[in-house]
Amino acid sequence: MSLIVLGIILLTVTLSACAQLALKLGVAKPQLATAIESSVSDALLAALTSPLIIGGLFIYGLSVVMWIWVLSKVELSIAYPFVGISFLITMAFGAFLLDENVTPLRIAGTVLIASGCLLVSRTA
Fold first, then answer.
1. Residues 81-100: pLDDT tens digits?
2. How many contiguous H segments (helices) and E segments (strands) does the chain have?
3. Residues 120, 81: contact at Cβ < 8 Å?
4. What pTM does this model have?
5. Which of 72, 79, 67, 22 is nearest to 47 (CA)?
6. Cα Rg for the chain, rounded, in angstroms?
7. What is the CA angle 111-114-116, rounded to 5?
8. What is the pLDDT, as a whole number, of residue 97?
9. What are the residue ranges spanned by the domains of the chain?
C-alpha cells in the first residue's frame, strides 16, 4: 500500500470521527433537543437547519467519496480494519472536547481494537 493511500485512509477515518463530533454537538443544542421531544417533523426541521448537523453530514459525505477512492485502490479486507482507528479518535474527542468520562477499561478496549487494525494493516 502506498503512503498516499494510507494517508487518504487515515484522513477518511479522521473525517468520520469529526462528523461524529459535529453531529453530537448538533444534537446537544437545546433547540434540537426540544424539537426531538416535540414531533418528528419538528425534529427534522431543526436538524435540517442546524449548521452542526448539516456540517456533520457534509463531512460524512466527503469521507464516503474518499472511501470509495480508497476501495478502488486496495482490498476491502485491508482498508476496512483502519476504520477501527476512528474509535481512538472519537474517544479522544469525547474525553477532551466533550468532557466525557473515559474509563481505563474503555481505553483498553479501544486500544485493543486499534492494535488489531495495526496487525491487519501489516499484511498489506
1. 888 888 889 999 999 999 99
2. 7, 0
3. yes
4. 0.84
5. 22
6. 17
7. 110
8. 94
9. 3-121
